[in-house]
Amino acid sequence: MTSYALHDIPDVENVTISPDARHVRIIDQTQLPMRRVFLDISQREDMYEAIHSLRVRGAPAIGIFAAYSMAVLATGIDGLPYGEFRDRLGQMGTYLDSSRPTAVNLGWAIRRIMAVVDAFPMKKVPEIVSLVCQEAIAIQEEDIGMCRKISSYGLSLVKDGDGILTHCNAGPLATSRYGTALGPLFLGKEKGMTFHVYADETRPLLQGARLTSYELHQAGIDVTLICDNMASLVMKQGRIQACFVGCDRIAANGDVANKIGTSGVAILARHYGIPVYVLGPWSTVDLACRTGDDIEIELRDGDEIKKKFFAEPTAPEGVACYNPAFDVTDHSLISAIVTDRGICRPPFTESLMALS
Ligand SMILES: CSC[C@@H](O)[C@@H](O)C(=O)COP(=O)(O)O
C-alpha cells in the first residue's frame, strides 16, 4: 500500500484511525460518563452496530466515523482489481449508510469517499486506498475548522453572563474539538466569558445528562442539569437568554431535524420570546430535502424508554412505546441557522441558497 501521512490531531479522541488504517478507534459513548472505554473497530458489522447503538453519535461524528470506516474497509480489500474493489466498497458503504436514517452526514461522508474511488479508475487500487485515507482525514480536519467557525459566529449572538439552554449533545463528542451548539460556550470560556448553561437531560437516552453536562462540567463551564419538562419553568424565570441546539439535517426551507424534544424547546422559547439558534456544519444542510416532511425520522426500540438506564423496568412488560429519535423544528420557530459559511436568518430558503 502506498504510504500516507496520518496527522496526529491532539485533543480529538472520540474518533481516530490507526496509523496502518486497520481499525477505527472510538470512545464508547454509551458508557459515558461512568467509564471511558475505547473500542478498536475493524469489521463492518461492528461499524454498523457502533453507529446504530449510538456508541458513536452526533451527526458530524457519525460522518467522520463513517469516512474512517470506509478507509479501514478499503484497506482490507486493497488487493482486488479496480472494478471488484469499487463494487465491494460501494456495497459496504450502502450497508453502513443504512445504520441510521436521519443524520445526513452519514451518507454525505460515504458519498464523498466513493467519489474519490470513482474519480481515479486508472490508478492502482493501493493508490486509491491511500487517497481514500487522505479524504477521510480531510473530513475530520475540515470538521475541526468548521466547528471553530461555527463557534465564533455563535459567540457573536450572545453576551457575557447569558443563560443558555441546550438540548441533547452537540459538543466535542458529537463532532471534533469544539462542537457546534456547545462550541460558542467553549470558545467564550477561552475568552474569559461566563455563561450559565441549562442542559436538558434529553430522554430517553440522556445525551444531555451523560454527555453535555459531562463535557461542560469537565471544562469548568457553569452547567445545570434539568429534566426536559423543566425547560418551560427556567425560561419563565428569566434564566434563559438563548437556546443553542445542534442539527441532524437542515431542509432547504430551514426546517431542522434534531434530537426528539428540540421542537418542543423551540415552541416554548417562542412563547417566552427567547431566540433559538441552530448550529451545524454546512454538511448538515440537505438542499435536496425541500421541507422537514422529506426527512426520515428514525424510530428506535421502545425498550430505550422503559429499560435502558434503570436497574428495574419502569413500565409494565409489554406496554406499547413510541420512540422517535428526532423531531423537526419548523423554520418559523428558528431565529438563525449558524453554519461555518455564515449566519442564515429568515427567510431561510433565500439565505441558505445564498451560501450554497
Ligand atoms: C453536533 S451533533 C448534532 C445532532 O446530531 C445532535 O444534536 C443530536 O440530535 C444527536 O442525536 P444522537 O441520537 O445522539 O445521535
TrEMBL record:
Which GO biological process annotations does it have?
Answer: L-methionine salvage from methylthioadenosine
One Pfam family hit: IF-2B
Q: Which residues form the active site?
A: D248 (proton donor)
The UniProt annotation places substrate binding at R57, G58, A59, R100, Q207, N258, K259
Kindly state which keywords UniProt assigns to this record, in alphabetical order.
Amino-acid biosynthesis, Isomerase, Methionine biosynthesis
Pathway the protein acts in: Amino-acid biosynthesis; L-methionine biosynthesis via salvage pathway; L-methionine from S-methyl-5-thio-alpha-D-ribose 1-phosphate: step 1/6
Report the EC code(s) recorded for this entry: 5.3.1.23
List the residue(s) that the UniProt entry marks as the site Transition state stabilizer.
C168
The protein's annotated catalytic reaction(s) are:
5-(methylsulfanyl)-alpha-D-ribose 1-phosphate = 5-(methylsulfanyl)-D-ribulose 1-phosphate
Domain of life (superkingdom): Bacteria
Provide the GO MF annotations for this entry: S-methyl-5-thioribose-1-phosphate isomerase activity
Regarding protein family, the annotation reads: Belongs to the EIF-2B alpha/beta/delta subunits family. MtnA subfamily.
PANTHER family according to UniProt: METHYLTHIORIBOSE-1-PHOSPHATE ISOMERASE
Its biological function?
Catalyzes the interconversion of methylthioribose-1-phosphate (MTR-1-P) into methylthioribulose-1-phosphate (MTRu-1-P).
Q: What is this protein called?
A: Methylthioribose-1-phosphate isomerase
| Provenance organism | Parasphaerochaeta coccoides (strain ATCC BAA-1237 / DSM 17374 / SPN1) (Sphaerochaeta coccoides)
